[in-house]
Amino acid sequence: xxxKWPPVPTRERSAAWLSLDQGDNDPASFxxxxxxxxxxxxxxxGASTLTLLQSPEPPPIQxxxxxxxxxxxxxxxxxxxxxxDFHLIDAREVQDGMAxxxxxxxxxxxxxxxxxxxxxxxLARLRGRGELxxxxxxxxxFTPDEVATYLNGVMGLALxxxxxxxxxxxxxxWIAALQLAAxxxxxxxxxxxxxxxFAGDDRYIVDYLVEEVLQRQPQNVRSFLLSTSIMSRLSGxxxxxxxxxxxxxAMLDALDRxxxxxxxxxxxxxxxxxxxxxxxxxxxxxxxxxxxxVHELHVRASAWYERNGERSEAIRHALAGRDFTRAADxxxxxxxxxxxxxxxxxxxxxxxxxxxxxxxxxxVLSVGYAGTLILGGELDGVEARLEDAERWLDTSTxxxxxxxxxxxxxxxxxxxxxxxxxxxIELYRAAQALAxxxxxxxxxxxxxxxxxxxxxxxxxRASASxxxxxxxxxxxxxxxxxxxxxxxxxxxxxxxxxxDTFGCSIAMADIRRSQGCLGDAMRTYEQALQLASExxxxxxxxxxxxxxxxxxxxxxxxxxxxxxxxxxxxxxLGEHIGLPQNPYRWRVAxxxxxxxxxxxxxxxxxLNEAEHLYVSDYFPNVRPVPALRARxxxxxxALGEALGWAREQGLSVDDDLSYPREFEHITLSRVLLARHTxxxxxxxxxxxxxxxxxxxxxxxxxxxTGSVIEILVLQALAxxxxxxxxxxxxxxxxxxxxxxxxxxxxxxxxxxxxxxxxLGAAARAAHGEQKGIAPGYVRRLLAAVNxxxxxxxxxxxxxxxxxxxxxxxxxxxxxxxxxxxxxxELIVSLSxxxxxxxxIYAKLGVNNRRAAVRQAEELNLFSRTRDx
Length: 868
Description:
Elements: E1 2-3, E2 13-19, H1 27-39, H2 47-53, H3 61-73, E3 78-84, H4 92-103, E4 109-113, H5 123-129, E5 132-133, H6 137-140, H7 144-154, H8 161-171, H9 175-185, H10 191-197, H11 202-216, H12 219-228, H13 236-243, H14 248-257, E6 262-264, E7 272-274, H15 276-289, H16 294-307, H17 311-320, H18 324-340, H19 344-353, H20 356-360, H21 363-375, H22 382-390, E8 400-401, E9 411-412, H23 415-419, H24 421-435, H25 439-452, H26 458-475, H27 478-494, H28 501-514, H29 518-533, H30 543-556, H31 560-573, H32 582-596, H33 600-613, H34 625-635, H35 639-648, H36 662-679, H37 682-701, H38 705-721, H39 725-739, H40 746-749, H41 753-765, H42 775-789, H43 804-813, H44 819-826, H45 830-844, H46 849-858, H47 861-867
Parallel strand pairs: 2-3, 3-4, 8-9
Antiparallel strand pairs: 1-4, 1-5, 6-7
């Protein structure tokens, strides 16, 4: 099956091949192997994606694949990726990831899937687009001429034309059956008799011919084939260990020369595998003839892999060999590395394959399993595992070291992990409490973790400080949160986890931003970038997030070119250099820039994407996307939808106020002010005024100057709508006074003409008795408002107006750029381009690109886009 394949070759091509097996159903492993295969022919691809897969908090797989797609998109030559035996992949998450990859695959990348069954992919859609070439069983069958060439030319059998025709007819050109028949005939005197007796359907042909081949092999070859059939890969040394004999490399070379269903896996002829069909039958014969040896063979393979540093394979074979004690030892030792590489899903599967009674007496495994549950978002069962481990902590003298556990004692293999269990247990309990909204419990357990972790255990102590920071942040005690995060950052740096300090930098900068300290927030980002530059080597994970944060600060200061440039730089680094929330944060920041540019439709599209990409983590979601969208709806005068948002969120002016919902309640006050403006509702202005007073008191008490400034601005607008200009200038003066030292601009400019009128009144008052309103700063704000208001969307007369962004898309529809090209030109997603295109078609009354361009020319719209 060939997917995304062009009708004619256009460029030089390279090929990457990946043979799959059942063990590749873990998403992290699957995509790591895919990337490794691609990097074998395109080394510049995927390094950052691997980093993202192994990050402490991996983002959604679509984010990971977007990073890979970005790398693939810049390849100059065509690349063919072959996935062999895809029928062995049945994990839904892997299949969904493949569907996403197919949907967004760059034109120079071609995917070949070899499978015994149709894969769970959108094949019908691909057929409809002409992007799917299917090679079915009938296409793979040899023609009579090919059968003759293979049997006589390749296998050297010198068969008559009649014999060839008979075999072709009975095998229907099936190469596996032809190969087995040829191997069987090589040692027969009566070839004609063999062919005459040869009959049966495919399955029985295979069984019969394999039996013929195996029985005709020398005993040592037959024993070697059966003994080594348990392995997915074969090397000389590995085969020696499993068979208990020497000469494994020579045997593999002989089998390769004899074309005995051996597939070479590297160019140095060190690693091989059996053809899957042949391997299946070999294993079936092994189980039938020597069932008692199967477990022993797996255990030998496990021991070899352990000696050679391949712990994952060692664990797989130990589990297959039902040597659960050995497997448990290996899994326990693998826990730190598996956590670091973010393969908790595999770790969880391993532990779940172990007998419960074995895990029960191994506290390190119990706590490790609890950690996989927490990271997977599953809290049920966590406490039971922690209690299983905790009951052993006071009985460490009864521990067995690396030996079978008795019913009376526990087993500990990794003593360093064991010594850290008390603090780890408290950390996991703190995480549980935070996930359940229990801030007090979070603080209690985090402090206990600090007490239990020794001074030299920088990593666990840093983690406990981070938990305290999260608890304080969630409760609105921003200064305490900043101190705790500073301690966490220091500890992580001392522990050598420099990349992990970037999460602290993001939190600390966001806290300073909420406190109205834009300068301090900017310095936090700059210091993090300086630290990253001092590490040398590749760009550290989290670097991209620094530029997103700096972009938001530049936007607030109304430096939109710098804000955009920082986002572009973040995008160039790639989402793989970001933390899990990077794709969401990036789109929110770009949406705010689009909003500042007057492209409200584009802003909504980006916010919709951001909401889809949002991944809940332990950071408090203090600026939720639905509230941001409601603000854009207010700007669009879509009051009904904005009111619908308030109802959906269950918001009321009489709610108990809290920091986590402060942004939403400020947004609610905006909706109420808009309702008063539209409907002249006295109740709405009264409710808005009352809510703003309560919000101001709470924000001032919490030291959240960023919120205080916005609330004061809204209070000024509320007084203005009631015709009380003197009252409006009072909160405006306070807002300006607080804003000037930090350079706030957009908080005023985004309010549009009403704020222009207020600032004009403030500027006039500056010449009278109220010179304290910072006349120079007020004039600067007023100039910024007036400049922004000159960027209103273009009107097109009798047709429904096209937004500024729709005009940009329309202009590019008149070029040779395709959809992805337009998306890259405008720095938006392909789905956003499609949305704008559909809107353009609807407004122009057309149904295709050519008609849209023709209609635009008739309406002289292209000249208007140039005027912009």
